[in-house]
Amino acid sequence: TSVSRGIAAGIRHYCKNTPTKLRVSQALSGAELGSNIKVQGWVRSVRAQKANVFLHVNDGSSLQSLQVVASSELSDPLLTFGSAVEVTGILKKSPHQKQPVELDAKQINVVGECNPVDFPFKIKERHGLEYIRQFPHLRCRTNAFSSLLRIRSEATAAIHSYFKDNGFVEINTPIITSNDCEGAGELFQVEPSGPDYADGENFFSVPAYLTVSGQLHLEVVSGAFSKVYTFGPTFRAENSQSRRHLAEFYMVEAEISFTQSLEDLTKVMEDMFRFATEHVLAHCVEDVDLFHKHVTPGHRDTVDAMIKNSFPVITYREAIDILRRSSERFAFPTDWGCDLKTEHEKYLVKHCGNIPVFVTDYPYDLKPFYARDNQDHPERTAAAVDLLVPGVGELCGGSLREERLNLLSARLEEYLDLRRFGSVPHGGFGLGFERYLQCILGVDNIKDVVPFPRFSHSCLL
Amino acid sequence: TSVSRGIAAGIRHYCKNTPTKLRVSQALSGAELGSNIKVQGWVRSVRAQKANVFLHVNDGSSLQSLQVVASSELSDPLLTFGSAVEVTGILKKSPHQKQPVELDAKQINVVGECNPVDFPFKIKERHGLEYIRQFPHLRCRTNAFSSLLRIRSEATAAIHSYFKDNGFVEINTPIITSNDCEGAGELFQVEPSGPDYADGENFFSVPAYLTVSGQLHLEVVSGAFSKVYTFGPTFRAENSQSRRHLAEFYMVEAEISFTQSLEDLTKVMEDMFRFATEHVLAHCVEDVDLFHKHVTPGHRDTVDAMIKNSFPVITYREAIDILRRSSERFAFPTDWGCDLKTEHEKYLVKHCGNIPVFVTDYPYDLKPFYARDNQDHPERTAAAVDLLVPGVGELCGGSLREERLNLLSARLEEYLDLRRFGSVPHGGFGLGFERYLQCILGVDNIKDVVPFPRFSHSCLL
Predict the structure, then answer these.
(1) What pLDDT shows up at residue B26?
(2) Where are the beta strands (DSSP E) in A213-331?
(3) For the whole model, what pTM was predicted?
(4) Alpha-carbon span A432 to A438, nearest angstrom
């Protein structure tokens, strides 16, 4: 008896010579048809007929389950939806179109029971994202959320691949930091808990915070590396219950030395977006289909339009003109100098054909101290760019950095040192990874694209 | 004039047909010999001769620099060690053995000056790791630390590859958590800073901490996925200045469902170690050589022995016997039931031939509540395993998890729920990534293998 190596890898193996696109899970890889194998997983469906019981066993390696056929004698009242089983049997060609192989069970062992009355998910029911969100410790056992987790894993890998293939070095920027990059003020402070540290002295000798951006640390390294990036958790102590904000979220940030213009940045943002999206569509076919067909029907057309068209670039000035010419009534003002709000961003995206759009050259006063001054009096703009996307609004924000020591009014001594010793023109950007997943899957609430969401008044598990 | 695409990729291109193993950086990829190109980077050496100036320009893509040859007229007093330059010139075959190509400069532009008197690193000096550690914002500009960052990036990619290739799904376990996985007590607490939150109410409604391990969250997901892993930052509020501890460090953690025995875990640990190490040795040849030849001479033999030999497995009982038979005087006791200290771990590694060794089946009372009870009275051990490695001691710790509801005395309601609904035998482990880098590079101090070290009384930048 050879032990399961994964249903997904397994079925893929048998699909090579079949017209079907099915992929399943971990038991089968390399096993010959007719051989005796052991499969392990969770029961996703049970169907009893006169002589036989049909099970679908899933091991998380794909959405697809392996069909198990057992004679009624092997039936067991513990064989319920959600229970964990080990099945030994003979691998056979399936007579059904739906799957290339099935398992003719010789022995079924229920390793973990699952009482269907207590279990919050019911067989054959399609529970909504909002319902399953109530069970953070169990929701990965639903089809939708297990698909989400596989997509998230694959999208992460795709983003790393994009950067590696393009010569970027990954830098682990710190989570705990003594500086406040954005000056935004919405910081979490970090101190040891417990009585040993109640003397009021800081553990790090200085107040320490959770990072809001790895940018300053990337800038340090981009003084010796032309291309660097980081991809990790970032924090905001925002007291909001928005569908677009979390207290802990993942950000992709890149920094590129010797940049000539904002085009050097927008090219990387657009290429990365397209590469990651095409990769996910190609490698998570069934998982993405589940979202595009059942969770957010109709969204596939939006995604196809996003990857087929190149992203338009408009200046902030042009954006303001578009907004002011529009017949739409906005809640917030649209004068030159006003920040673009979500309502404006969504309008601009629609105006441009419901595809991602770059907005460049924002008023200098709207952007942080490190954005490069365009010195274009009287308006005075900064060489900054945001990428706005359908359904989400702002996905990326970037800028050329002010590399000129005399123009930089920051007070950080180290930041000034970086300009003192071999300073170069550079720029970078950040992308909100959860918003990216919302964008490609059409998921409305950011809490549904992260394994364990953290927001004000909620930190479950 | 085509613009640089990276000296490393470039020189690799020209090395294809040369016997040399040299790899350089970002300017050259695809450019024909004799064509006009632009190269951007930092000056790593300047040497003036009568008619010519020789520069080495590095862009961080590899240790190797591109040699630039310029007529003395192009010389400039600002062309100093550490300055940033843009060089335009003709790519030529180099007459020297050391490099396949060189750049015949037509124009040199100093983009960023670097005053060699103020700059803390001096040309041609080999600064020690301890010296450069004083300059966290500049040390990436040294050869040693830029090599370290490339190795770290490559090792990270190798570990992700290992897991992806073996069917593991990556799960982003949360940084902020309301539980204390290890019960160790050395926790950082997280609360918003600033006056808005001074009312004593918790932001998350419950006390929230920085994670000490993603294990419990991986266990949640391993109720639907046979193989999952996480790779990210982890935290300990340890008030120590040890060479092996940081307040913020990276951990690789994996969880495998349907495990039969500790062998299922040790196989993954050993395979991953070997895969990552062989990958780094093959892909970072010059960077690793710099460490093995100049920073930690002699360490290469240790590394070669580690990947050539399979890792021995001894029980805790055997380990205690070895320690008690030894003639060495230990500071800590070696009775059955005592925890293994660093001195013991290092002795055991030496005893086994200075290669990594697994120690299994520790006393039940030494291991956390989730370790599986071996029920082997009267000794009572737990199915737990540590991997001890040369120079570092404990690198990995893992265990089978107690999947039996009636034996599990934890108080976490969710943790019990996981056993209630389709519980399966499972197990997992964690590996300290910085210790792994120490181990393969022979670096004594953990602060030298992380871009921005955090420890008690220190949180620079």
Answers:
(1) 44
(2) 227-235, 248-257, 313-315
(3) 0.91
(4) 10
Residue A388: which of A354, A365, A364 has the closest Cα? A354
What burial class does residue B72 get, using C-beta atoms within 10 Å of its C-beta: 0-12 exposed, 13-18 middle, 19+ buried?
A: exposed
- Are the beta carbons of A121 and A82 closer than 8 angstroms? yes
DSSP designation for A195:
G
Output DSSP code: residue B301. Answer: H
**B61 and A196 in contact by Cβ < 8 A?**
no
Q: For A434-445, how does the pLDDT look when each residue is reduced to its tens digit (9 = 90+)?
A: 999 988 888 889
Residue B403, pLDDT above cutoff 90: no
**Helices then strands, each counted (H, E), chain B:** 11, 19
Distance from CA of A46 to the nearest CA of B (A): 15
Mean pLDDT, chain B, integer: 88
- The DSSP annotation for A413-428 comes to HHHHHHHHTT---EEE
* Contact check, Cβ <8 Å, A232/B227: no
Fill in the amino acid letter for B199. D
Q: Given B226, B239, B451, which is nearest A59 (Cβ)?
A: B226
CA–CA separation, B306 and B338 (whole Å) = 28
**CB atoms near residue A124 (< 10 Å):** 7
pLDDT at B389 over 70: yes
Please tell me which residue of chain B has the smallest CA distance to A60. Answer: B225
Cα–Cα distance for residue pair B384/B118, rounded to 1 Å: 53
Three-state DSSP class for residue B66: strand
Do the Cβ atoms of A451 and B141 come within 8 Å?
Answer: no
Question: For residue B6, which of B23, B28, B21 has the smallest C-alpha distance?
Answer: B28
Give the torsion sign (CA, B232, B236, B242, B246). Answer: positive
Distance CA A227, CA A215 (A): 13
Nearest one of A451, A413, A392 to A150, comparing CA atoms = A451
**Closest approach of chain A CAs to the CA of B253, in angstroms?**
15
Candidates B359, B331, B333; CA nearest to B345 is B359
Which of B58, B149, B177 lies nearest to residue A221, judging by beta carbons?
B149
